[in-house]
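Following up on my earlier thread - several people asked me to post the actual chain instead of describing it. Fair enough. Here it is, all 288 residues.
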Amino acid sequence: MQKLAVAPLFLATLILAGCGSPNSSGGSSSTTSAAAGASQAGAPAPAATAVTGTVTVPNPPSPITSQAKLELSLVDVTAQPAVTVNKQDFAPPTFPQAFHIPFSASAINGNDLYVLQATMQDNGRTYTTKLQQPVLTRGQPAKVDIVLVAEPTKAEKMLADFENAKRQTGAMTVKTGTSSKIGESHSWQVFSDEHGVEFIIEQTNEADKGFTKTEYAYKDGLPWVVVQEQMPKADAPATSTERVGWGNDGVVVLNQQISGGKTTTMSDAQTKALNAQATAEYKRFKKH
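Reply from S.P.:
Thanks for posting it. Predicted structure:
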């Protein structure tokens, strides 16, 4: 009797196992497919092997010449001192200039900050970016577009400083004077402070040559900037302008001769003559 009771129970177990087998098999297959799909969807993009992009120079103050040299550098600025990973130069560049700076993955530390530095030299002027461009790490891209901006030249900075110094003469002590002779008259203003003579404005009116206005600026008792304008008469537009300025070492920094809408440079003899003229005027008025 006990054997008969066991048989139905064993048969029921087999039936239940058989019914569950297809469901178990199907569930396993579905899970595997879903995992494979998720793996494909979440696959990381191929790692960058180069920094790429373009460089532009909108509205340069003067046309870019064939002597221009553009330098691009991929730099690790976290390292001390900073380390250049790779660089690319263009001489001359053609704008918009595309670039491709390859690097080895082993050269990149994911915890460091990397920037793309860009500078260009052309005709005495430097072009740079307003801000350094981060790349590669800390969520930064491998493809970037760089915009270069022109910096003032040394001559432009000197001329701007001269104009600023001229505006400061209102706070200085001023002495004026005049002199005349047949066919020629002179007037002058001498501006001084606790350091001595800083600025002189001299005007000469010659009946046969027209009107000349000369501005002399000094630093530490030495000629700094001279601006001389020629015009047909007082208060008329200048027909020519000469500007020359010297650095602390006496080397000419500013050298412009403007006439007929064209800007050229003066000869060494001309700049030396203006320096001697400025020195003579300083000695003349220093005595007063």
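Confidence is low (pLDDT under 50) at residues 1-45. That should answer part of your original question.
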